[in-house]
Amino acid sequence: MAKEYLEQLSSYMKEAISGRSKNVKLECKHFFSGAAVYANGKICMSWTPAGFAIKLPEELRIILLKQKGTKPLRYFPKGPIKKDYVILSKTILNDVKILRHWIKLCIEHVASLPDPVRKKSSDPGAA
User: Fold this and answer.
1) How far apart are the C-alpha atoms of 126 and 103, rounded to whole Å?
2) N or C: which end of the chain has fewer CB within 10 A?
3) Contact 104/97 with Cβ under 8 angstroms?
C-alpha cells in the first residue's frame, strides 16, 4: 500500500513543482504506511491514509484551516495531532494553481528551518 502513496505523491509533486524548487533538494520516500517529501533532508509533506499533509508555520496553518475540507493532521483516530501540519482538502488537491501555492509555501518554510540537532552517541567507542 505504501507504494501506491509514493506513486501518488510523486505524481502530485511533478505536477505541482515542475522544476520550481530552486536550491532545495526534494526527495520522495516511503514513510510508515505512506510516503513523504523531504526538502533538504527535512520532512515537509506526507501522503498517508490520513490524507495529503503539508508542514506550515502557524500563521499559514490558521489561514489554511479556515478553508472547507482542511484539517489538522492526525495519523491515527486517537493519536496526537501533528500541530505543524494541515491535511489539504480535495478541492485544493484538484486545483493545480492553488496546490502549487501551498506546496511552495511549505517548501520555503521547511527549507528555512534549522537542521535538527543530532544527539551525540553515548557509546564511548563511537567517533
Assistant:
1) 39
2) C
3) no
What distance in Å separates the CA atoms of residue 92 and residue 40, rounded to the nearest whole number?
A: 25
Place of cell 484551516: 65
Q: How many domains does the chain have?
A: 1
Cell 540537532 sits on residue: 117
Alpha-carbon distance of 103 to 44, in angstroms, equals 9
Q: What is the pLDDT of residues 82-121, one digit of tens each?
A: 999 999 999 999 998 999 999 999 999 999 998 877 766 5
Whole-number pLDDT of residue 120: 66
Q: Which CATH number is 98's domain given? A: 3.30.1460.30
Take residue 51 and report the three cell numbers written for it.
490524507
Phi, then psi, of 64 in degrees rounded to 5: -65, -40
The pTM of this model reads: 0.82
Question: Contact 70/93 with Cβ under 8 angstroms?
Answer: no
